[in-house]
Amino acid sequence: MGKTPSSLARRQGSWLAALAAALSLALACFHLHQAWRPLAVAFASVPSPLSSRQVARPKNAAVTMRAALKPGDAVMVIGMNSPGWPTSKIAASMLNSLGYRARPVVSKATDQWAAFADSGIKGYVFGSSEPLPACSGLVLANEIGCPADKLVACVRGLAALGQLSRVALLSRPCVSGQAEVEAEVVEACERAGAEWTIVQTGNLRGGGPASRSKHSCGQEIYDAVQERGVLGPTAGIEEELFDLKQRGLRVGAVAGFGLGPFSFQVPATSRILAASALVESLSLPEAANQIIGTASSEAEEEPSSADWHAAFRALKES
Fold first, then answer.
1. Is residue 2 part of a domain?
2. Number of domains the chain is built from
3. What CATH number does residue 72 fall under?
4. Which of 42, 140, 176, 275 is 20 to 30 A away from residue 84, measured at CA?
5. Could you give the CA distance from residue 74 to residue 285 in angstroms, rounded to a whole number?
6. pLDDT score, position 77
7. For residue 19, is it within any domain?
8. Tell me: the pLDDT tens digits for 31-67?
């Protein structure tokens, strides 16, 4: 039986509707591709800021914010009594070098001489008879994440002592639940009247002696990657090569995303870079109440304090 004009019209109408839907999807994918450009484009150099999402100030939050930190201030560092310890150890070393009184939280079993040698860093032994020290800064640098309630308890505990001014949080958006952790830490800081900075990273890598940083961890960083075995027989060497070459800073979104050909790989962030962002943020007014996404790029030198100042200033002005 032949097709009637009305049935042909209906079929054409259906076909046109399907075509319109396909074109609409293609256009959406194009815009999505523009928003999630390949890594080389998505990560601009330092002057290009991350479009930070706005975090609403909670109701009844304290409104009196405090000054950025200065040398001589005490800063507590969270993360060393965890399997995800390297970035916190690097941050403690950087703080000490800049003249802060670094107080990394350690366990009773920690050999502080092996951890800090004669650097002058004095760990705060969790569960010891020493009262919680009054600190002006708090660096939350646990690489493998930590339940939000524990981080909030750290903020509230230090805030209750009356000196807490700045909080810096290491966050990995590729890890499930990080958005909720960020929100709860921000709310705790706002209520305490402490300014905050969230340093978002990609996959944390390196941090060993090949970085040539005086704050690096030892060869054990590479040995641990090699012994893990999941990244192949040359994983340790590749980690050293990463440290040798990837010393620069790129600022941009760091969460992975996939939609067929329009995919965005999670970038790599050097532990040295992540720790530097956390530490530098404490003294910069421009870093207050900001979220910055950090990834490593090929460069001969680490970013300087001036580079961080420019990055946070660009972020604030965006």
1. no
2. 1
3. 3.40.50.720
4. 42
5. 18
6. 98
7. no
8. 323 332 332 222 233 332 233 344 444 444 444 556 7
Cα first-last separation, the chain: 65
pLDDT in tens, 24-41: 333 333 332 333 233 222
Residue 62 amino acid letter: A
CB burial of residue 52 (10 Å; 0-12, 13-18, 19+): middle
* 276: phi then psi, degrees, rounded to nearest 5: -60, -40
Is 237 among the domain residues? yes
Tell me, yes or no, whether 25 lies in a domain. no
Sites in the chain below the pLDDT cut of 50: 1-63, 263
Q: Locate tokens 């502080």: which residue?
A: 112
Domain that holds residue 302: 67-317
Strand positions, DSSP E, 164-272: 166-171, 195-201, 203-205, 248-251, 268-270
Non-local CB neighbours of 190 within 8 Å, separated by 6+ positions: 57, 58, 61, 62, 196
Closest among 252, 123, 150, 269 to 205, alpha carbons compared: 269
For tokens 């308890």, what's the residue?
153
Check if the beta carbon of residue 282 is closer than 8 Å to that of residue 69: yes
- The torsion angle over the Cα atoms of residues 281, 275, 171 and 314, rounded to 10 degrees, is 40
Contacts of 1 (CB under 8 A, 6+ apart): none
